[in-house]
Amino acid sequence: MTTPLVEMKDIRISFGGVRAVDGVSIDLYPGEVVGLLGHNGAGKSTLIKVLSGAYRADSGEILIEGRKADIRSPADARRYNIETIYQTLALADNLPAPANLFLGRELRDRWGFLDDDRMEAETRRIMARLNPNFRKIKEPVSALSGGQRQSVAIARAVYFNAKILIMDEPTAALGVQETAMVAELIQQLKAQGLGIFLIDHDIHAVMKMCDRAHVMKNGQLVGTVRIADVTEDDLLGMIILGKMPERAVV
Amino acid sequence: MSEVTHPGLGSRRSMVEQLQLDMRLLGMLGAFALVILVFTVATGGTFLTPRNIFNITIQTVSVAIMATGMVFVIVMRHIDLSVGSLLAMCSAVMAMTQTQWLPQYFGLPLGHWAIAPLAILAGLVTGTAIGALHGWLAGYQGIPSFIVTLGGLLIWRNVAWYTTRGQTIGPLDQTLILFGGAEGILFPTWSWIIGIAATLVALWAIWSTRKRKESHGFPVKPLWAEAVLSALAAGAILGFVAILNAYQLPPGRLRRMFEARGETVPEGYSIGHGLPISVLLLILVVVAMTVIARKTRFGRYIYATGGNPEAAALSGINTRWLTVKVFALMGFLCGLSALVAQARLQNHGNDIGTLDELRVIAAAVIGGTALAGGVGTIYGAILGALIMQSLQSGMGMVGVDTPFQNIVVGLVLVLAVWIDAAYRKRLGVR
Amino acid sequence: MASNDGTAGGVVAALTAQGLQGIPVSGQDGDHAALNRIAQGTQTVSVWKDARELGRVAGEVAVQLAQGVDPASIEGVEQFTTPGGNTVNAIFLDPVPITRDNLSVVVDAGWITKEALCQGVTNGPAPCN
């Protein structure tokens, strides 16, 4: 068996006495899309923020490609090629696409000044590949549609050679066509060997896009299933009742 | 994907679009022009004399320097109410250093060449350190900057009071006084040299930007538009120098200058003022702050954090440390303004910089800086400061009562933000 | 005629920039910086009301009033009619106009040191000569 891309082992984190994540272990393999399911407040977003460096776990460990990883900040996560696309579309609305794509990792000229022209050229190049309809390069991203904004966020991950991609409800703000575009993009990235964590409320989308699913409830892991082995009802049962389907234990 | 528009094509686009001028900049320039026009008519032309333009320019410098820093503070969604008091604090330290501490404790005789640089250094260090303290309290300790600097407003003016025991400190070092405006001027020859050098730099910047864009295959402005912009830039710089050069030294001042050298004024001799050193200082600050805003990571992170603090933090930007740096920079600029203010008044007085916080914030806001964060330009703040000073000065010349002057400035502030809000709403921009 | 020495300082700075020294400028309070300007010849006069004397007399009067002494019978009290037409009890201290001719008064009174008064002054009026 290959080494998992990510292993999170026995992660615990509490906020002011409330156990948001209570001893959860999950994993992710290359070329795999793994759904992370659960109600609001089940702890999935908190868990994933530990991986992306936004929160620090109280205990537990993270292995990246079999080696212990020390992730204390978003910058650390990026060093392990972990990229995150947040539900809230973490873009600075007042800046145009290139500034957002390179935020925190700006290209600079030999004097150390920002090289906006090169960043713009790179943005045009990658957007031509991901979303050929994208034209508003110079305008603040607040002027863009949800799908266009999402494609900026995805372009950011792709440009910096993510190996591990975390997507927090990537299609929540999108229309039908744009959702299809993102779904296709996910398949494309999966084929390239990326491992993708997909946090989503939409059982349909999870059934369609994911290979496996981790289900959480009240900060704990209900279980992990192979999507091919379960029905939508099985997943709903896990989410709502916290009950494992009898035939589908991995 | 590159779409190259060829020069001369796309003629359906309006002229303003082709020049790619900022509509807001045009609006502010229009407002400024209106103020000038009204007062020129009301004063029968006195408002536009070289002498008055010179005076308005040197009166604007102190507030304008601080306004550039306030742009960054407000863009970061913070506010700094302490700048007037901080100016007084830096001024007190500078005044005490040059007149008492250095002569008494370090044995430097009054008039020693090292006194001015050491005093200036002391003031700048004081401002930077206090600014950093404010930033640390706001950034790391989570105290709203409104509260931190409201406290600072009370604290620093009164620490300054204790530092000088409430006395007016003077006379100040003769070298230091050169930073005040009228006393430190460059005269026409050097002003022309600097003006021409600045023009060449501006032209080079415009054309090298064009070349770079072309090399990436980006759309560029039509050639005639570049030419018009270049001509405007050159005209503005050289015209400004010409006006300041046209303001002749008053006879009494000439006599004093020649007497200091043990000579008498030759018959019919006359010479213009040229650029004041304080204005040159402001120009350098504006250029440096604009470069920081547009061409450095520091500046980019300020705007990104103002636009979406959470996104900035998730992108690995240390927004707390950034807050410290922005407030420290604000403090440094307060120190610089303190130098100009005390040199202009030739004394450190207790009330130096009183109410400057309001003028500085108003200048930034009239200049288009949004209190919601993320939006604001350095040139806008300078225009805002100029508009306010012109209003105040013009109303003084026309003989408007002081209370009414303040009422008008207050109205203009609210009106400017109102127009800006309406403009954004129409464009559908946040 | 400036309402205080701080304002007078600004006036002098503005006049100097216009090459208009020699125009008479008056201030009030006997600020150290203003006395120095008088020694330098850029300010004409500062009205000096010795705050120490003012404080001493006010303190003494307060003590007497607290002891129940009739205000009108306190030593040195005169009747003063205000511009509004009211008559009040008042004690008048003598303000001293300080010009280049009597600068020694402030030094002798210990209000200012000779060094502070004469800073940057060469060949000025007494005691700065």
Strand content of chain B: under 5%
Q: What is the fourth-level CATH superfamily of chain C?
A: Response regulator
Mean pLDDT score of chain C: 89
Strand order of the largest sheet of chain C: 1-2-5
Fraction of residues of chain C in helices?
25-40%
Assign the CATH class of chain C. Alpha Beta
Computed CA radius of gyration of chain B, to the nearest angstrom = 23 Å
Q: How large, in whole angstroms, is the Cα Rg of chain C?
A: 18 Å
- The N- to C-terminal Cα distance of chain B equals 28 Å
Low-confidence stretches of chain C: none
Rounded average pLDDT of chain B: 91
Question: Any chance you could write out the topology, listing elements then pairs?
Answer:
The complex is a heterotrimer of chains A (250), B (430) and C (129).
Chain A: E1 6-15, E2 18-28, E3 33-37, H1 44-51, E4 59-64, E5 67-69, H2 74-79, E6 82-85, H3 97-101, H4 116-130, H5 146-159, E7 164-168, H6 176-191, E8 195-199, H7 203-209, E9 212-217, E10 220-226, H8 232-241
Parallel strand pairs in A: 3-8, 3-9, 6-7, 7-8
Antiparallel strand pairs in A: 1-2, 1-4, 4-5, 9-10
Chain B: H1 15-19, H2 23-42, H3 50-75, H4 83-105, H5 115-139, H6 145-164, H7 187-215, H8 223-246, H9 251-260, H10 277-295, H11 297-307, H12 309-314, H13 319-345, H14 356-366, H15 378-398, H16 402-427
Helix pairs in contact in B: 2-15, 3-8, 3-10, 3-13, 3-14, 3-15, 4-5, 4-6, 4-13, 5-6, 5-13, 7-8, 10-11, 14-15, 15-16
Chain C: H1 5-17, E1 26-28, H2 32-40, E2 45-48, H3 51-66, E3 78-81, E4 87-90, E5 96-98, H4 104-108, H5 114-117
Parallel strand pairs in C: 1-2
Antiparallel strand pairs in C: 2-5, 3-4
